[in-house]
Write a structure and sequence with these properties.
With 323 residues, the protein is of the alpha/beta class. The protein has a single domain, classed as TIM Barrel (Alpha-Beta Barrel), CATH 3.20.20. Strands 6-5-4-3-2-1-7-8 form an 8-stranded mixed beta sheet. Strand 7 and strand 8 form a beta hairpin. Helix 2 packs parallel to helix 3 and helix 3 packs parallel to helix 5. The chain is globular. Bound molecules: iron/sulfur cluster (SF4). The site of iron/sulfur cluster (SF4) has 12 residues, from helix 11.
Amino acid sequence: MEIFSGEAAVKAPVQPFAERLAGHGLELRRGTAQTLQVNVGLTCNQACRHCHLAAGPGRSESMDRATMAQVAAFAARSRFRCIDITGGAPELNPDLEWFLAALAPLAPRLMLRSNLTALAARPHEELLALCRRHRVAIVTSLPALNASQTDAQRGEGVLATSLAMLRKLNGLGYGRPEAGLELDLVANPTGAFLPPSQCQAEQKFRGDLARKWGIVFTRLFTFANVPLGRFRKWLKESGNFENYMERLAAAFNPATVEGLMCRTLVSVAWDGFLYDCDFNLAAGLPAGSVRRHVSQMAGPPAPGEPIATGDYCYACTAGAGFT
Ligand code: SF4
Protein backbone atom coordinates (compact mmCIF):
# COMPACT_ATOMS: atom_id res chain seq x y z
CA MET A 1 0.00 0.00 0.00
CA GLU A 2 1.30 3.43 -0.85
CA ILE A 3 1.76 5.61 2.27
CA PHE A 4 1.78 9.39 2.11
CA SER A 5 3.24 11.74 4.74
CA GLY A 6 0.97 14.21 6.57
CA GLU A 7 2.28 17.68 5.62
CA ALA A 8 2.17 18.26 1.88
CA ALA A 9 5.35 18.45 -0.12
CA VAL A 10 4.17 21.95 -1.04
CA LYS A 11 6.76 24.17 0.67
CA ALA A 12 5.88 27.75 1.43
CA PRO A 13 7.64 30.65 3.11
CA VAL A 14 5.51 30.39 6.27
CA GLN A 15 5.47 28.24 9.41
CA PRO A 16 4.17 24.74 8.61
CA PHE A 17 0.42 24.68 9.20
CA ALA A 18 0.50 21.68 11.57
CA GLU A 19 3.12 23.47 13.68
CA ARG A 20 0.99 26.60 13.80
CA LEU A 21 -1.98 24.53 15.02
CA ALA A 22 0.18 22.82 17.64
CA GLY A 23 1.26 26.25 18.92
CA HIS A 24 -2.42 26.87 19.72
CA GLY A 25 -2.82 23.42 21.29
CA LEU A 26 -4.81 22.27 18.23
CA GLU A 27 -4.61 19.37 15.81
CA LEU A 28 -6.76 18.51 12.82
CA ARG A 29 -8.70 15.27 13.13
CA ARG A 30 -11.82 14.00 11.43
CA GLY A 31 -15.23 14.29 13.09
CA THR A 32 -18.39 12.49 11.95
CA ALA A 33 -18.66 12.66 8.16
CA GLN A 34 -21.72 14.61 6.98
CA THR A 35 -20.93 15.65 3.43
CA LEU A 36 -19.79 13.61 0.46
CA GLN A 37 -18.11 15.76 -2.17
CA VAL A 38 -17.65 14.07 -5.53
CA ASN A 39 -15.28 15.46 -8.11
CA VAL A 40 -16.60 14.07 -11.40
CA GLY A 41 -13.67 15.25 -13.49
CA LEU A 42 -11.15 17.94 -14.36
CA THR A 43 -12.48 18.81 -17.79
CA CYS A 44 -13.68 22.41 -17.91
CA ASN A 45 -14.60 24.83 -20.67
CA GLN A 46 -12.72 27.58 -18.77
CA ALA A 47 -9.12 27.72 -17.55
CA CYS A 48 -9.46 30.16 -14.64
CA ARG A 49 -6.33 31.69 -13.18
CA HIS A 50 -7.36 30.86 -9.61
CA CYS A 51 -8.18 27.14 -10.19
CA HIS A 52 -6.50 24.99 -7.51
CA LEU A 53 -7.05 21.87 -9.65
CA ALA A 54 -5.71 23.39 -12.87
CA ALA A 55 -8.88 22.15 -14.57
CA GLY A 56 -9.45 23.16 -18.17
CA PRO A 57 -10.30 22.16 -21.74
CA GLY A 58 -7.04 20.18 -22.00
CA ARG A 59 -7.83 17.86 -19.05
CA SER A 60 -9.45 14.51 -19.77
CA GLU A 61 -9.81 13.01 -16.25
CA SER A 62 -13.49 12.14 -15.89
CA MET A 63 -15.50 9.84 -13.63
CA ASP A 64 -16.97 6.91 -15.58
CA ARG A 65 -20.35 5.36 -14.92
CA ALA A 66 -18.90 2.28 -13.19
CA THR A 67 -17.12 4.52 -10.64
CA MET A 68 -20.29 6.59 -10.26
CA ALA A 69 -22.17 3.40 -9.36
CA GLN A 70 -19.48 2.58 -6.76
CA VAL A 71 -19.78 6.10 -5.31
CA ALA A 72 -23.58 5.78 -5.14
CA ALA A 73 -23.24 2.42 -3.34
CA PHE A 74 -20.78 4.02 -0.90
CA ALA A 75 -23.25 6.88 -0.29
CA ALA A 76 -26.06 4.36 0.29
CA ARG A 77 -24.09 2.64 3.06
CA SER A 78 -22.78 5.87 4.61
CA ARG A 79 -25.85 8.07 5.23
CA PHE A 80 -24.44 11.50 4.38
CA ARG A 81 -26.54 14.60 5.05
CA CYS A 82 -25.33 16.27 1.89
CA ILE A 83 -23.84 15.22 -1.44
CA ASP A 84 -21.95 17.90 -3.33
CA ILE A 85 -21.06 17.39 -7.01
CA THR A 86 -18.06 19.35 -8.24
CA GLY A 87 -15.36 19.34 -10.96
CA GLY A 88 -13.88 20.82 -13.28
CA ALA A 89 -17.20 21.60 -14.82
CA PRO A 90 -19.52 18.75 -13.73
CA GLU A 91 -21.87 19.66 -16.60
CA LEU A 92 -19.27 18.32 -19.05
CA ASN A 93 -19.42 14.79 -17.63
CA PRO A 94 -21.72 12.89 -20.05
CA ASP A 95 -23.17 10.77 -17.22
CA LEU A 96 -24.08 13.67 -14.91
CA GLU A 97 -27.86 13.24 -15.27
CA TRP A 98 -27.61 9.51 -14.54
CA PHE A 99 -25.45 10.20 -11.48
CA LEU A 100 -27.76 12.90 -10.05
CA ALA A 101 -30.78 10.63 -10.40
CA ALA A 102 -28.89 7.80 -8.66
CA LEU A 103 -27.79 10.05 -5.77
CA ALA A 104 -31.03 11.97 -5.23
CA PRO A 105 -32.67 9.38 -2.91
CA LEU A 106 -29.47 8.89 -0.90
CA ALA A 107 -29.12 12.19 1.01
CA PRO A 108 -31.51 14.92 2.19
CA ARG A 109 -29.48 17.57 0.35
CA LEU A 110 -27.91 17.37 -3.10
CA MET A 111 -25.78 20.19 -4.52
CA LEU A 112 -24.47 20.78 -8.02
CA ARG A 113 -21.66 23.26 -8.66
CA SER A 114 -21.71 25.09 -11.97
CA ASN A 115 -19.53 27.74 -13.56
CA LEU A 116 -22.67 28.80 -15.54
CA THR A 117 -20.88 29.04 -18.91
CA ALA A 118 -20.45 25.25 -19.10
CA LEU A 119 -24.16 24.88 -18.36
CA ALA A 120 -24.99 27.45 -21.03
CA ALA A 121 -22.76 25.73 -23.60
CA ARG A 122 -24.47 22.31 -23.49
CA PRO A 123 -28.10 21.18 -23.86
CA HIS A 124 -29.37 21.82 -20.34
CA GLU A 125 -33.18 21.58 -20.40
CA GLU A 126 -33.23 17.94 -19.24
CA LEU A 127 -30.52 18.55 -16.64
CA LEU A 128 -32.34 21.54 -15.15
CA ALA A 129 -35.68 19.70 -15.14
CA LEU A 130 -33.99 16.88 -13.22
CA CYS A 131 -32.45 19.39 -10.78
CA ARG A 132 -35.85 21.00 -10.18
CA ARG A 133 -37.55 17.63 -9.73
CA HIS A 134 -35.03 16.55 -7.08
CA ARG A 135 -34.66 20.05 -5.60
CA VAL A 136 -30.93 20.05 -6.26
CA ALA A 137 -29.26 23.21 -4.89
CA ILE A 138 -27.26 24.92 -7.65
CA VAL A 139 -24.05 26.62 -6.53
CA THR A 140 -22.55 28.90 -9.15
CA SER A 141 -19.26 30.75 -9.32
CA LEU A 142 -19.23 34.45 -10.11
CA PRO A 143 -16.14 36.33 -8.91
CA ALA A 144 -17.26 39.89 -9.68
CA LEU A 145 -19.96 41.93 -11.37
CA ASN A 146 -17.44 43.86 -13.38
CA ALA A 147 -16.89 42.48 -16.88
CA SER A 148 -13.20 43.35 -17.07
CA GLN A 149 -12.38 41.64 -13.73
CA THR A 150 -14.48 38.54 -14.37
CA ASP A 151 -13.36 38.12 -17.97
CA ALA A 152 -9.69 38.64 -16.99
CA GLN A 153 -9.93 35.78 -14.49
CA ARG A 154 -12.21 33.45 -16.41
CA GLY A 155 -12.22 34.33 -20.10
CA GLU A 156 -13.83 36.76 -22.54
CA GLY A 157 -17.62 37.08 -22.41
CA VAL A 158 -17.91 35.03 -19.20
CA LEU A 159 -19.84 37.69 -17.24
CA ALA A 160 -22.49 38.20 -19.95
CA THR A 161 -23.04 34.44 -20.38
CA SER A 162 -23.16 33.92 -16.61
CA LEU A 163 -25.77 36.66 -16.14
CA ALA A 164 -27.94 35.24 -18.93
CA MET A 165 -27.80 31.80 -17.29
CA LEU A 166 -28.66 33.23 -13.86
CA ARG A 167 -31.72 34.92 -15.40
CA LYS A 168 -32.73 31.61 -16.91
CA LEU A 169 -32.36 29.86 -13.53
CA ASN A 170 -34.47 32.59 -11.90
CA GLY A 171 -37.09 31.96 -14.60
CA LEU A 172 -37.24 28.31 -13.48
CA GLY A 173 -37.77 29.40 -9.87
CA TYR A 174 -34.14 29.06 -8.74
CA GLY A 175 -33.17 31.75 -6.21
CA ARG A 176 -36.82 32.67 -5.57
CA PRO A 177 -37.80 32.02 -1.92
CA GLU A 178 -41.37 31.09 -2.86
CA ALA A 179 -40.14 28.24 -5.10
CA GLY A 180 -37.78 26.79 -2.48
CA LEU A 181 -35.08 26.17 -5.11
CA GLU A 182 -31.67 27.20 -3.81
CA LEU A 183 -29.35 29.23 -6.05
CA ASP A 184 -26.09 30.21 -4.35
CA LEU A 185 -23.23 32.31 -5.64
CA VAL A 186 -19.57 31.84 -4.81
CA ALA A 187 -17.26 34.82 -5.23
CA ASN A 188 -13.49 34.72 -4.94
CA PRO A 189 -10.93 37.53 -5.28
CA THR A 190 -9.63 38.21 -8.76
CA GLY A 191 -6.00 38.48 -7.53
CA ALA A 192 -3.55 37.78 -4.68
CA PHE A 193 -5.62 39.31 -1.91
CA LEU A 194 -8.12 38.18 0.72
CA PRO A 195 -11.87 38.32 0.06
CA PRO A 196 -14.06 41.07 1.52
CA SER A 197 -16.47 40.23 4.35
CA GLN A 198 -19.08 37.74 3.15
CA CYS A 199 -21.90 39.84 4.56
CA GLN A 200 -20.82 43.03 2.78
CA ALA A 201 -20.15 41.20 -0.48
CA GLU A 202 -23.58 39.55 -0.36
CA GLN A 203 -25.28 42.90 0.18
CA LYS A 204 -23.42 44.43 -2.76
CA PHE A 205 -24.07 41.51 -5.13
CA ARG A 206 -27.73 41.36 -4.10
CA GLY A 207 -28.24 45.08 -4.69
CA ASP A 208 -26.32 45.28 -7.98
CA LEU A 209 -27.73 42.08 -9.51
CA ALA A 210 -31.30 43.09 -8.68
CA ARG A 211 -30.96 46.71 -9.83
CA LYS A 212 -28.99 46.20 -13.03
CA TRP A 213 -30.21 42.82 -14.24
CA GLY A 214 -33.27 41.85 -12.13
CA ILE A 215 -31.43 38.75 -10.83
CA VAL A 216 -32.07 37.19 -7.40
CA PHE A 217 -30.18 34.49 -5.53
CA THR A 218 -30.32 32.67 -2.19
CA ARG A 219 -26.90 33.17 -0.56
CA LEU A 220 -23.44 34.32 -1.47
CA PHE A 221 -20.23 32.76 -0.17
CA THR A 222 -16.77 34.30 -0.41
CA PHE A 223 -13.52 32.41 -0.14
CA ALA A 224 -9.79 33.02 -0.36
CA ASN A 225 -8.09 31.56 -3.42
CA VAL A 226 -6.17 28.43 -2.45
CA PRO A 227 -2.47 28.48 -3.45
CA LEU A 228 -2.40 25.24 -5.41
CA GLY A 229 -2.58 24.28 -9.08
CA ARG A 230 -2.83 27.10 -11.61
CA PHE A 231 -3.20 29.78 -8.93
CA ARG A 232 0.07 28.73 -7.25
CA LYS A 233 1.82 28.82 -10.62
CA TRP A 234 0.43 32.29 -11.33
CA LEU A 235 1.45 33.54 -7.86
CA LYS A 236 5.02 32.36 -8.46
CA GLU A 237 5.27 33.68 -11.99
CA SER A 238 3.87 37.08 -11.01
CA GLY A 239 6.15 37.38 -7.94
CA ASN A 240 3.17 37.38 -5.54
CA PHE A 241 3.69 33.98 -3.88
CA GLU A 242 5.64 34.97 -0.73
CA ASN A 243 3.45 37.99 0.01
CA TYR A 244 0.24 36.04 -0.51
CA MET A 245 1.34 33.20 1.77
CA GLU A 246 2.42 35.67 4.44
CA ARG A 247 -0.92 37.46 4.16
CA LEU A 248 -2.84 34.21 4.62
CA ALA A 249 -0.67 33.13 7.56
CA ALA A 250 -0.98 36.56 9.24
CA ALA A 251 -4.79 36.26 9.04
CA PHE A 252 -4.75 32.82 10.75
CA ASN A 253 -7.77 32.55 13.05
CA PRO A 254 -7.68 29.54 15.44
CA ALA A 255 -11.45 29.85 15.99
CA THR A 256 -12.05 28.59 12.42
CA VAL A 257 -10.40 25.18 13.02
CA GLU A 258 -13.36 23.54 14.74
CA GLY A 259 -15.61 24.21 11.72
CA LEU A 260 -13.17 23.37 8.89
CA MET A 261 -14.94 21.41 6.18
CA CYS A 262 -12.29 18.65 6.11
CA ARG A 263 -13.46 17.57 9.58
CA THR A 264 -16.87 16.49 8.30
CA LEU A 265 -16.39 16.03 4.54
CA VAL A 266 -15.22 13.13 2.41
CA SER A 267 -13.93 14.05 -1.03
CA VAL A 268 -13.95 11.44 -3.80
CA ALA A 269 -11.88 11.98 -6.94
CA TRP A 270 -12.94 11.01 -10.51
CA ASP A 271 -11.09 7.69 -10.06
CA GLY A 272 -12.97 6.84 -6.84
CA PHE A 273 -10.13 7.46 -4.36
CA LEU A 274 -10.75 9.29 -1.06
CA TYR A 275 -9.38 12.62 0.22
CA ASP A 276 -10.18 14.85 3.21
CA CYS A 277 -11.02 17.76 0.89
CA ASP A 278 -10.76 18.93 -2.73
CA PHE A 279 -7.51 20.78 -1.89
CA ASN A 280 -5.80 17.67 -0.58
CA LEU A 281 -7.06 15.99 -3.76
CA ALA A 282 -5.30 18.72 -5.78
CA ALA A 283 -2.13 18.24 -3.69
CA GLY A 284 -2.31 14.44 -4.02
CA LEU A 285 -2.60 13.75 -0.26
CA PRO A 286 -5.11 10.94 0.34
CA ALA A 287 -7.36 10.72 3.41
CA GLY A 288 -5.69 8.76 6.20
CA SER A 289 -2.36 8.98 4.27
CA VAL A 290 -3.26 5.78 2.38
CA ARG A 291 -4.92 5.43 -1.03
CA ARG A 292 -8.40 3.98 -0.40
CA HIS A 293 -11.10 3.46 -2.99
CA VAL A 294 -14.83 3.99 -2.29
CA SER A 295 -15.45 0.36 -3.25
CA GLN A 296 -13.23 -0.78 -0.33
CA MET A 297 -14.95 1.37 2.30
CA ALA A 298 -17.63 -0.03 4.61
CA GLY A 299 -18.50 3.60 5.46
CA PRO A 300 -16.83 7.00 5.75
CA PRO A 301 -13.39 7.35 7.39
CA ALA A 302 -13.67 7.02 11.18
CA PRO A 303 -13.88 10.02 13.51
CA GLY A 304 -10.48 10.74 15.07
CA GLU A 305 -8.46 9.96 11.92
CA PRO A 306 -5.73 12.61 11.41
CA ILE A 307 -6.22 14.96 8.45
CA ALA A 308 -3.34 15.57 6.05
CA THR A 309 -2.42 19.25 5.84
CA GLY A 310 -0.30 21.56 3.72
CA ASP A 311 0.56 25.23 3.92
CA TYR A 312 -2.38 25.99 1.59
CA CYS A 313 -4.58 25.18 4.63
CA TYR A 314 -3.90 28.78 5.70
CA ALA A 315 -6.42 29.79 3.01
CA CYS A 316 -9.13 27.99 5.02
CA THR A 317 -8.25 29.58 8.36
CA ALA A 318 -7.74 33.18 7.21
CA GLY A 319 -10.12 35.67 8.80
CA ALA A 320 -13.63 34.31 9.09
CA GLY A 321 -12.49 31.03 7.50
CA PHE A 322 -13.68 28.88 4.64
CA THR A 323 -16.02 26.04 5.50
S1 SF4 B 1 -7.11 22.67 2.73
FE1 SF4 B 1 -8.66 23.37 4.22
S2 SF4 B 1 -10.23 21.82 4.14
FE2 SF4 B 1 -8.37 20.92 3.25
S3 SF4 B 1 -7.23 19.91 4.93
FE3 SF4 B 1 -6.47 21.97 4.79
S4 SF4 B 1 -7.74 23.12 6.27
FE4 SF4 B 1 -8.80 21.25 5.83
